[in-house]
Amino acid sequence: MNYKKKVTILSALVAVLALVYALILFFDSDRRRDPAFAWLDSSLFDMADRIELFGTNGLIVLSRINNVWFLSDGGIDYPVKQGRIEDLIAALSRRESYPLRALSAEARERLGFGDGVSSRIRVSGGAGLPLLDLLIGSADALGREVYLKMDDENEIYSGEDRFTIFTESRANFWLDMRLFSPASIADVQQAEITLSDGEAYTLRRSGAGWIMLGNESAALDGPRVDAWLRGVLEAEAENCGIEAPDTIEISITLRFGDGQTRTLLAGPPDETNNRQVVVSDSTFVFLLSEWTGGRLFRESSFFLR
Q1: What is the pTM of this model?
Q2: Which of 14, 78, 183, 193 is most buried, by the most CB atoms less than 10 A from its CB?
Q3: CA-CA distances (angstroms) from residue 205 to 58, 183, 190, 212?
Q4: Beta pairing, strands 36-37 & 188-194
Q5: Local structure of residue 215 (DSSP, 8 states)
Q6: Quick one: pLDDT at residue 149?
């Protein structure tokens, strides 16, 4: 066989091998997969009614009831920050580049996907329909990316860590601890305050300022009243309480221009210096620290010029 024939045969073999390899790549859907994709199709979110988050702090269950998300614990559905749910769904449905890193069982163990090791985000719809079961492994050497895989698949990908902030956070990260539903201070016409020492007074809006009923001649610091009122409307508890207080020691009642009334009732401080608090427009009990309460339950002299 002369040299030219050898070259021709080798060239033909190379061409055949190249064709075979191209066909393998073409028909192997996993290898053809676009490295830029989303873990959860945003169109499926409307079907979702349960999210389970597994991390080092245990299991957190989020449930969707009448299109509002709650944190379900011990048979009680606690209010959560709806924006946090939106952030989670945005991270899952965001189209990103996730390069394929490994396929082997050995790699799964090494990259943090051993039994009970990885974190997890599970999303399901009505009647438990599985929409997503995403496992989150260890971080890369620089700590900027994490390894990711679907529970029922072998392929391991890597991507920017947008997920452990959700799986590794405690319940307080999700809970909506606002004592009052959103409102504008301009809508508040009157505030009635009762303190633990028995002092009770009423602030009423008068024109562009405020007066103290029963002591109308007192000069009040209008901006200070507004700042305090804003603090009341924006106040957040430290945690959810267990049961409503038996004794009411302090109260704040806000009366709005549309006729609505909202009342905050607080019991005495417990052994941890926290107060059990209930609010008229909420079915939940909140736990309020004495530090936060000190900024809300002000003596009448605080508002004088």
Answers
A1: 0.74
A2: 193
A3: 49, 16, 6, 9
A4: unpaired
A5: -
A6: 96
Q: Tell whether the torsion through CA atoms of 158, 162, 168 and 171 is positive or negative.
A: negative
Whether residue 15 is contained in a domain is answered as no
Is residue 107 included in any domain, yes or no?
yes
Token code pair at residue 119 = 């974190």
- 3-state helix, strand, coil split of the chain in percent (to 5) is 30, 35, 35
Residue 13 within any structural domain of the chain: no
Place of tokens 């245990």: 58
List the one residue out of 278, 276, 246, 239 whose CA is nearest residue 262. Answer: 278
Give pLDDT tens digits for 156-207. 999 999 999 999 999 989 999 999 888 999 999 999 999 999 999 999 999 9
Work out how many domains the chain is built from and give that number.
2
Looking at 144, 173, 202, which one is the last position of a domain?
Answer: 173
Closest by alpha carbon to 283, among 110, 76, 128, 96? Answer: 76
> Residue 290: is its pLDDT beyond 70?
yes
Q: What local confidence, expressed as pLDDT, does residue 12 receive? A: 52
Helix (H, G, I), strand (E, B) or coil at 198: coil
Alpha helix ranges (H) inside 39-176: 82-93, 105-110, 164-167
pLDDT at 16 over 50: no
Q: What is the CATH number of the domain that holds 91?
A: 2.60.40
Q: How far apart are CA 68 and CA 91, in angstroms?
A: 19
**Same structural domain, 213 and 262:** yes
What tokens does 30 get? 């996993």
Range of the domain at 274: 185-303
Residues 206 and 116 both lie in one domain? no
Whether 123 maps to a domain, the answer reads yes
Instruction: Report the C-alpha gap between 150 and 54 in whole angstroms.
Output: 14
User: Among 146, 173, 200, which residue terminates a domain?
Assistant: 173
Helix (H) or strand (E) holding 233: helix 222-234
Query: Domain check: are 204 and 292 in the same one?
Result: yes
**Separation between Cα atoms, residue 25 and residue 190, nearest integer Å:** 72
Residue 287: other Cβ atoms inside 10 A: 18
Instruction: Give 178's DSSP letter.
Output: B
